[in-house]
Predict the structure.
Amino acid sequence: MTSPLEQKKIKIAGPSVVTANRTWDGIVVYRTAAKGWSAELSEAAIVRNSDEAKALLAEAVADDVGAIGPYIAPVQIGEDGKILPGNLREQIRRTGITIGQPAQV
Amino acid sequence: MYAYDEIDRTLVNERVSEFRDQVKRRLSGELTEDEFKILRLQNGVYLQLHAYMFRVAIPYGTLATNQLRALAHVARKYDRGYGHFTTRQNIQFNWIKLAELPDALEDLAKVGIHAMQTSGNNMRNVTSDQWAGVAPGEIEDPRIWSELIRQHTTLHPEFSFLPRKFKIAITASDHDRAAIKIHDIGLRLIKNEKGETGFEVLVGGGLGRTPFIAKTIKHFVHGRDILSYIEAILRVYNQYGRRDNIYKARIKILVHELGIEKFSREVEDEWQHIRNSSLQIDDEVIEDIRSRFTYPAYEKLPHMPDELRQAAADPDFEAWRKNSVAPHKVQGYSIVTISLKPVGGPPGDATAEQMDALADLADKYSFGEIRVGHEQNLALPHVAKRDLPALWKALDKLGLATPNVNLITDIIACPGLDYCSLANARSIPIAQELTRRFANHELANLIGRLHINISGCINACGHHHVGHIGILGVEKNGEEVYQITIGGRADENAALGTLIGPGVKFDEVADVVEDVVEAYLALRERPEELFMDTVKRLGVEPFKERVYATR
């Protein structure tokens, strides 16, 4: 859960995606294989080694108008092929805060 | 309240227009994120985990009811219906869209609110005592001087590109509610032997990964010289402060590395060059600012009205009054703290409905004024004692009468990993669990004054170093782990807490706090001995033994 802001070296230990926040509204998005962005993790392009990760990240960084702050995030691939967030931080980014919002308390 | 003049209004409106153009250019691709980032930060816009976060300044913690309603409006129209009051008299909105930010800023500008000085490496929002102007025994209203510094530093080019952010807090009371000793510059208003107003100046306080308590650099600086003295400090910082390493860039590191004596000499030399310049403040300037702060037309009221005497028979009212109501400088009036720490709720959050309703109550009972404190609570500064029972009933209906001010469930917590891109661990769920554990008011009251502060990373936005019990969330092998300190405090006797041992897991934190509290209850010599007194008397060892004996 080290902050991606401290992500200096690209070294991946398993399947990963490139994630960022959409520029105009800030929502969480994932880089797709079609060189676009999607709010669905299931549509994210999966990379499995550093070279693939670097290439996908470079492509994402180049799309500066589409999304900001791209970084590589780990994912897990379920037995059914479903893509799941690889750590708590990414889980929270995908599914939202783990607490009730004030109006819900 | 402070009444803005035409210069202030023009500045705020021009800023909105400027930012609208910047956002437009960013969304069209004319500006890259690298170019835009500093501009958005100068307007309080961060990028967090889920969305942009918009931080709005509440200078010296004073709000008029139309301003609170405007904040409620922003929460409702542009966000998800709530806001989060921070530890530096700001409010944050967590789900704002960049494309809509100029509109939100424009709506706020109509009531004189802005987001300048809420982020970036500049002079941040000047904070003060939330009881300013109404606290008994105060030297004078510290907001007059806060406003002077705000006017001088807002968009000042010399203070806009500092090595790092720079925070000033001011108090005018013996009891420090503004936490001045954990600020880059802390100012304590005092009178000299001639009866002249001036400041004890402290420098180099701060938390984060390298915490320091501020040191006194000068015992008395005359009020007319305060701007030149602050500027001298800033010049020395600008000259020697490190820009090569973000972790060593705060003034606290410079003060520590140079030593307070050498740092003081450097400031003194610099000050002599600029002391008698245009930075010397004319009395008329201060009087003009003073005249813009208006105070209510208080009535002559009895010390103990019948309404209060009758309500005292209700134990629920008394429980609330005892913790939430403080003496006022004017007889017959009180300062009422509004707890934003409901059992099971996120500390410091308020819904748009609560903000609107509180604005109505402030109009009815507090001359239209609300205050924001660094403990993430609000206050009504001018409540007639006769109105306390009616106010309590109204607050209770809104979920704003939790009788826990200054008790163990009055927790300070940063947004943590639920919202923050810097965080390593969650803060709010820990606070929520602790409020459930200690929800029993009789137990909380038995424990007495005890502040728990929680941060979700080493940047310490939850001020964990100065919590009586401090909780710091870190990440270890992909898991959230929490380090516990005890003995910290943020008041006039500010101190950093001491780590009691190895970190504990998320699920164990509340148990550990319970152990610490049980140890305290067993160790205290008498019920009046507060937690901090016991820690001072015995040190951390007995608490450490209790916590780790079975872990």
